[in-house]
Amino acid sequence: MLNLIEIKNQWKNQGFCIFPNFIDTKKLEKLFLICDDIFNQWLATSPNIKEAANTTNMAYLTEPIYFDKYPKKLIELLEFIADRNIIEILEFISGEKILFHNTQYFFNPADKSWKGIWHRDTQFLA
Asked: What is the distance between the terminal CA atoms of the chain, rounded to a whole angstrom?
């Protein structure tokens, strides 16, 4: 059972939270397949594939164009995003009702010679 007070304190003190085994392995594997498929579609349509592959994230995973062939995958992704367990944690940490803004998918740059430009997206707490 998750202790929401400990989670909130970890967020305040460290700026991130780690939840080992929070997501069922089979569900996680499905999410990776969905997100990797979206990533590959995004990459294929990027004007500069090498540049796109060497960034660290892409936005708007829920764009309908990525789900033309498999619309049920969009529902799976949105149901995961709206999972009550996730919403409960986010609302407790923020003290506010959570609203959906967009999605981002973080990945390692294809060119292993650099670590990318990782950052914490606290601007979304505003």
From this structure: 29
